[in-house]
Amino acid sequence: MTFVGFTGAHSTLLWATFVLALALGVVANKTHFCTMGAVSDWVNMGDLGRMRAWLLAIAVAILGVAGLENVGLVDPGGAFPPYRGAQLIWAENILGGLLFGIGMTLGSGCGNKTLVRIGGGNFKSIIVLLVIGVVAYYMTNPFPGSDQTLFSLLFYEWIRPLAISTENGQDLGSLLNTENALATRLLLGIVLGFAILMFVFKSADFRGNRDNMMGGLLVGLIVLGGWYLSSNLRIDVEGDNYSLGGYYEEWDMLSDSEVGKPLRGRPLSPQSFTFINPMGQTFGYVTGGLERALLTFGIMALLGVVVGSFLWSLLTRSLRFEWFHSIKDFLTHVVGAILMGFGGVLALGCTIGQGITGVSTLATGSFLALFAIIFGSAITLKVQYYKLLYEEEATFVKALVAGLADMKLLPNSIRTLDAV
After folding, report:
1. Is this structure's pTM higher than 0.90?
2. Fewest CB atoms within 10 A around its CB: which of 8, 164, 252, 362?
3. Range 189-203 average pLDDT
4. Using CA atoms, how far apart are residues 419 and 46, in angstroms rounded to an integer?
């Protein structure tokens, strides 16, 4: 898609993103696609239906990105955020994933589910969104009158030195075959994608559940659509083609004025759906006076999911207003939102942002973040279950030990709460 000016290309990016996200909101609401729910069903009931839907979305995204990148139609290597960056920030991926997994369990859903719930009339999720937005914004932006962010104050000095520098990128293709990473990624993508598909469709119950199949397939395709859209917008300047990001870098040379120039260039890079950093961007957009220069792919994605979910709720008459039923419920959600804000930025994404979008690039850090998110949510669910079942007898430590023993990470001999 080639345009004669920046404004047309940028507007297409924003509105096409909104349409894709609107579809995501409809699909997630209609099919109950929920990554936290997938972990909960697995841990509490042994039901892998929604987990298989999540895996189906991952497989579709992996296969699509591998194929389209091989023919030059998507550019995950230049993505925002930099999933394949030369530094493997493994400690941030793991810690951030753990915090996010714990937080999404306490906050009743991941970033995408929070937006879907808002569209369905859940006012609790509005509070979750506000808290995540503030934390995520100040994780990446300095406090007023300061050059310090939450990340620089709390994390940078001790966690960033743990990063491992790689010469050509930390995706699996680059790590295994630096001389021909593209072909290696294609092969790995095909093998991994089809292996996941075989596991997913092995289940007769899953094959018989149209919502789970439709949810996984469409979410995967929507993520792939985000990659394709953001990678293929071009601006023609006297026969030379520029990407949005490339035009931004050469703005002074290519444009006669500052009219229509976004505030930042990085959000113009190839990307797909993620929701924690965009919640921070949305906070900045609102407090910045709703200036068009602050609009990004992420903000339009956030708005689109809410609107899509709201429209589906209206269409199906399922709009239900919900509020906190106690002070404890309020505080639990706020703590969960804080953890999601910290964790989502540290890990470079959420269950969609890293769990599908990031993993589709075969970035090592994305896999680490995904596994950490699942573990963080699973162990939190275990602790909640044991504390609910045994009430006062189950201290946090006892519930944690029991949960870890259930997951075969501690010997059964040291537990004091019987397995159930």
Report:
1. yes
2. 252
3. 97
4. 15
